Every structure is written in structure tokens, then in C-alpha cells.
Amino acid sequence: MIKPTVGELLSGVAVSLRERVLPEIPPGVTRRQIQAAIGIIRRASSVWDKIGPYFFADNQDIEETLRRLIPVIERVTAEEADARLTGVAIKLHATLDRSGAPAEAYPSPAVLGARNIELQEVLAELQEALHDNPVAKNAGRLEIDALIRDLLRRMLARELEINSPARP
After folding, report:
1. Integer CA distances (angstroms), 153 to 33, 127, 157, in order
2. Domain limits at 105?
3. Model confidence over 37-93: pLDDT tens digits?
4. Do 121 and 109 belong to one domain?
5. By the 8 A CB rule, do 111 and 102 touch?
6. Does residue 115 form part of some domain?
């Protein structure tokens, strides 16, 4: 592991700015801008080293859940002949087919982040399609809803973990 990590470097910059530079700046706009910059740097330093594993776990969980949803979605679309839900199912298949093995052995946080956005977009589109017809609450739709709610709970737990301050 490379030491110091990027997170540690950013944290050091924030501390230096707060302890060495900020006291030299008189009150006013410039001081407030530096204070804001320190806050942004501290925030970035707290999540930088966690972002890759976060995206990796999130992507894996979303993909696994979407794969579990496919047969249920297909059953619901067959029962209801819902054109929008059918379109989402097609897009879902295409999105999951693209996942495969990443082009690089260790994808960068940027690659993982782009995939995360793609997965969350298709998930949001699925939710919108399901809620277009709120009257239809058959067993299949209820199963889809339960799986999505469980996924969202896990996603929120991961989000909380990455955004919580480190505990000593």
C-alpha cells in the first residue's frame, strides 16, 4: 500500500490550511472561501480511500438484485402486457449483459462510478414503470417492490458507512 494514501494527503492539506494559512487571513470573503475549501477537502479526504470498495460492493449488490428480479418482471409483463415495463425489462437485460468482466483487472473508481450510475438509472426507470400503474398490485409487483426495498436499505447502509466519520 502506498503511504500516505490520497485520503491522508488531503487530510494533511486541510489541517495545514486550517492551522497555518487560515489564521493569517483577515475576516471577509477570502477567509470564508478558504474555510469552505477546507471543508470540501476534509470531506473528500474522509471518503477518498473508501470510494472504490463502496462502488464495487454497491454495483455487485444492484446487479445481483436486478438479476433476481428479471424472472419476476418477465412474469408480470406477460400477465399485464405492460409496454413500459416490457421496455424496461429489455433495457435491464442489455445493461446486465454489458456488465461481464471489467475490461481492466482492477477497475478504477471512475469506471466503477460510471457503472454505478448506469445501474441506478435502470433501477430508477424500473421503479417509475412500476409506479405508473399503482392500481396493479399483484403478487409479482409486490415481490418486485419487496426486493427493491431490501436493496435500497442495503444501499443506504453502505452510504451511511462511507459517510460516517471514522471511529477510533
Report:
1. 36, 15, 6
2. 51-163
3. 999 998 888 888 888 899 999 999 999 999 999 999 999 988 888 888 899 999 999
4. yes
5. yes
6. yes
